[in-house]
Amino acid sequence: MFQKLRALLVTSKNLLLLEFFTSIVVLLTLLPQCTQTTEKNTIINNYGASPEQYEQGLNRREKEVTERLQQAHDKEKQLLEVELAKIQVKQNNLHPSYEKYITELKERIAELEQFKSSNPQLFNKAIGALKQGKNKVADDLFAQVEKNNVYAIKTVAEASFQRANIAEDEIRYADALAHYQKAYRLTPKNTLYLSKLGFIYDILGKYKKAIKYYELALKSNLKTYGEDHPKVAISRNNLGGVWHSLNKYKKAIKYYELALKSNLKTYGEDHPKVAISRNNLGGVWHSLNKYKKAIKYYELALKSNLKTYGEDHPKVAISRNNLGGVWHSLNKYKKAIKYYELALKSNLKTYGEDHPKVAISRNNLGFAWNSLGKHKKAIKYHELALKSDLKTYGEDHFNVATYRNNLGFAWYSLGKYKKAIECYELALVALKKTLGIEHPTTRTVARKLAKAKEVLANKTE
User: Fold this and answer.
1) Exposure check for the chain: N or C terminus, fewer CB within 10 A?
2) What's the mean pLDDT in 26-52?
């Protein structure tokens, strides 16, 4: 479960980058850890919120967070920005995000069975509420369990843990952290609670605390299961991820390599978890600017994913997108374009025309063509990406602001400063609404706007 969580955490941080193609490439880099299926498939389940309710919940939470950002003080603003980024990651990956929610909900309900005997009436009602997607009802019932079973420590800890999961699902991270801390305090040797506490610190950017709990979870898993066990590999993968976030790449590589070695022994060569480990190693070598090593791991991940899933699968598209990104970093723009085009073709077949992942592929192609000096081709792709996300999200959305910024950069490169200024101005309006006037990203776009105006003024004098 936690190996899948690693992906969304890393991508959320990169949503705050605007100018470079890597902001969008990295958006996809670790997503193979999520369960992904074709958007056109219909999910039929008897658990949790319906897909429509899930999407509506994300949209409501996005509105709440965006509104609160306008009046928030600095400390609260940091938390809200993390939450907003995570919401947008989920919106961009709605189908796999929903599937992950359902999968983990089933796991949590199965875990609850062992606690039912301590308070059958409340636990049965809470389980029923979770199955119906009634999170508020379930949370209230678990709060009653906490209150009514003060001497049954494990039962109270599990109720706190379940409340933390509900808060995490709803992207209320301060509440999630408080509940995870309580569960850990009550049962400090529970490896699952340790891992989740590490994860929530990780997602909040509290990396040293995340490392503390991830290391405790690893130590516990090694003692329980031994060296080459999937749970040990997951703990190492989590540690690799947090060291990667801290830009301690050699430490990240150490943990990722140990996870890969273990997964190879457990699953064999062509297994999705082995592909994930190689993809993670590709990502950290990419961060180290060791592009040939990154290509080696990305190519192995692509080969494995092709064998596992076939040609037109989201994970294959992600592998190709990653390879496009590293070739772009090597200034091999034609090779980058080749992989980006294959990713675009696959995403169009999987998701259809107006989908965020299709927009991302087109954005990447826009940057590659711009780097080749083919500014008109770049503008074509950036305009298509913008048009798509306007249809998906509407005017005042971070992704829309991002694509307007990128389109402005292409117009600027072409020497069409009035067009660039128009794009930057619209991007700035949206960013002020979504992130606030003092946010570094807002300030960056404001500087770019000022520069474009200055160049235009000098040109007309």
Assistant:
1) C
2) 48
What average pLDDT does range 344-367 have in this prediction? Answer: 94
Per-residue pLDDT tens digits for 234-282: 999 999 999 999 999 999 999 999 999 999 999 999 999 999 999 999 9
Q: Is 323 domain-assigned? A: no
Does a structural domain hold residue 416? yes
| pTM score over 0.90 | no
Within a domain: 410: yes
Residue in the block written with tokens 């999961």: 165
Domain-located, residue 423: yes
Distances in Å between the Cα of 260 and the Cα atoms of 231, 247, 445 are 13, 20, 40
Mind listing the pLDDT tens digit for each residue in 298-349?
A: 999 999 999 999 998 999 999 999 999 999 999 999 999 999 999 999 999 9
Q: Each residue of 398-437: pLDDT tens digit?
A: 899 999 999 999 999 999 999 999 999 999 999 998 888 8
CATH of the domain at 391: 1.25.40.10
Domain total of the chain? 1
